[in-house]
Amino acid sequence: MTDRYDLIVRNARAATASDTFDCDLGIAGGRIVAIAQRLPSGAADREIDAAGRIVTPGGVDAHCHLDQPMVEPMRMADDFETGTRSAACGGTTTVIPFAAQVKGRSLREAVDDYHRRADGKAAIDYAFHLIVSDPTDTVVDEELPALVNEGYTSFKIYMTYDDLKLDDAQILTCLEVAREQGAMAMIHAENADAIAFLTKRLTQQGKTAPRFHGMSRPMPVEREATHRAITLSELVDVPILIVHVSGGEAVDQIRWARGKGLNIFAETCPQYLFLTQEHLGLDGFHGAKCVCSPPPRDAANQQVIWDGLADGLFTIVSSDHAPFKYDDPQGKKLGGEEPSFEYIPNGIPGLETRLPLLFSEGVMGGRLSLQQFVALTATNPARLYGLYPKKGTIAIGADADLVIWDTSTKRTITNAMLHHDVDYTPYEGIEVGAWPATTLSRGRVVWDGTNYLGTAGGGEFLKCGRPEAAKPRTRDGGWRSWTGI
Ligand code: DUC
Ligand code: ZN
Ligand code: ZN
Question: Which of 89, 139, 195, 313 is deepest in the core (most CB within 10 A)?
């Protein structure tokens, strides 16, 4: 045991995904190097007294979008500097945004470009997922396998959005690469043709207000695509993660698949717990602030999502932070002052509010145990994407990414208290009973409960290991076992 520490966090009520225990935490070189009932006085240059406070691993937000290149003139409001600043102030210490391939261009180029966007800007550590939008032979046979080997071990596949979507044949091809390389495929499950059909019929009838966004992608649109994604993964015999699951009928498909013994993981997000379709109908154009896909549903669906968190259906909770300013012709007002819902950029901000919302309503509201909260927001995402145990836990040798929680003060969320570069929060006015009093990123205080203390460039790029759930497998099995080939 080191005798001297850079920092001691004293009297912590530390919570991991499995236990809660009272301890002092000794930190040196950015890592946790001692966990003891009592560390000697004077053994550290600095001490933080966490008496009476719960200390959890820093959050791992494994689904967020920062400075992602958009079709002009659309522009994301947060880059790596403002996005990671906001994350840090909300207790998140690792983010995994997406290096998105542009159709017709290479995946490698997307990764190189995304590094340039992140370099010197991130305040907390970050890894990259890939988005595969154009699975050419070169991408499938060369670029994707090489990138997985280099630490980009997960990629997202879209079943909707014209500039990103893959057809079923392309999805199968990509899933086969995931199987052979031991990568995690994340699937955005919505039926593109059904959305296009419904959008056309709605707009033909003049139904263009933001609330019709929800009606253009009702639950069956997500249910069908979720079932199809599960079937494609079954054919290839590879685990997949269904991202941003919004409600009951998609949950039913995942339960059914699990019942069959299929390896299907599921993610949900705070918008499906705290927002409903009513928010899309807010006065005037303000419903645009809650336009995201899949859309928020209703109270009954919210309950199904809470139940799925409590009973283990969901593996992770991510923000799907996709930041667009409201009063901005490059943001929500892209198509004019009150454009048709089809032109409203999809996505809402949520990096900073993810943990406080879930801690308050989940843990303090009696819906989740503290262990479930830690698992869903830190440990499981770290495991799923090959960052564990460096990230996502409190253990000797783990990075000293920690959140010391203030659960004694009630706060009402306002956009003014947040640190992103977006001009609204969809959670304005919601009261929370928990907020980070301190966030540590590799032992450095990046948030002290009042002030952001991080620095652009303080965060490091993380190469991901192979996801625990997705070990590389040979060419045998998968569709071959169905066809006898
Ligand atoms: N939906 C997505 O698929 N990505 C970003 C934001 C959104 O709403
Ligand atoms: Zn998505
Ligand atoms: Zn997303």
Answer: 89
Close Cβ partners of 96 (under 8 Å, ≥ 6 residues apart): 60, 61, 62, 63, 64, 126, 127, 128, 129, 154, 381, 385, 464
User: What residue owns the CA closest to ligand 1's atom 7?
Assistant: 347
Q: Are 46 and 462 in contact (CB under 8 A)?
A: no
pLDDT tens per residue across span 142-182? 999 999 999 999 999 999 999 999 999 999 999 999 999 99
pTM over 0.85: yes
Substitution site in 166, 346, 348, 351 for ligand 1 pocket (most atoms within 8 Å of beta carbon): 346
Test site for ligand 1: of 98, 160, 279, 293, most ligand atoms within 8 A of the Cβ: 293
First CA to last CA across the chain, in angstroms? 56
* Residues 179 and 148 sit within 8 Å (Cβ to Cβ): no
Q: How far is CA 177 from CA 136, 226, 358, 364, 478, in A?
A: 12, 20, 35, 42, 11
Residues with CB under 6 A from ligand 1: 65, 188, 292-293, 320, 322, 346-347
Surrounding ion ligand 2 within 5 Å at CB are 188
Amino acid at 84: T
CA of 200 to the centre of ligand 3 (A): 24
| Statement: residue 191 has pLDDT above 60 | yes
